[in-house]
Amino acid sequence: MFNMMELMIGKTKIRIVQGDITEQNTDAIVNAANPSLMGGGGVDGAIHRKGGPKILDECKKIRETKWPNGLPRGNAVITTGGNLKARYVIHTVGPIWRGGKHREPGLLAEAYKSSLKLAVSNGLKTIAFPSISTGAYGYPIEEASKIALKTVKEFLEKEDKLDEVVLVLFTQSDLDIYKKTAKTLETFKNFH
Ligand code: ADP
After folding, report:
1. pTM of the complete model beyond 0.90
2. Which of 5, 34, 92, 157 is the most core-located residue (most Cβ within 10 A)?
């Protein structure tokens, strides 16, 4: 299987690739954070390790000012990218999977939407996402991939200010799941 897929929605290119989110040179990369914004495992740990202490400093300021009780699930905030190639990190918090009847789909869609909105409101042109909630938070990736793709597509149908949205899957098997989902969604059928 090819390890990439791409499609235009209006003026924006969506790319689905296998890779490491911390290596992306988009304007912003998205962090699958937790409400504390104080770092963690998975994507979160990798971003803070590679991006350096400036990211955590800004996260601490956000906790002191805007979100003293932590960032609610589905919301997003933006910090510097520190030493990363990306100039910014957009931190969002996805839902923890608890069987699917606890607002998980809506919260996951909100996490993608809030991040995209924040990119646009900051005048950014390119953004890369990891597969939010499908690691430590346990969201089944088949279901999560449908929400990720559908939410990005619907956002871009109404908003043409972004040049590129990249969905970065850590493993080949996760990439294959996203590609399979993409082919089942009507607008993605002309993917190549
Ligand atoms: P969450 O807590 O939201 O589930 P995780 O970071 O645990 O977030 O995992 C989210 C997804 O990101 C998982 O599919 C995991 O395999 C993947 N992942 C882990 N490290 C990286 C990385 N460096 N780049 C891209 N994806 C990664």
Report:
1. yes
2. 92
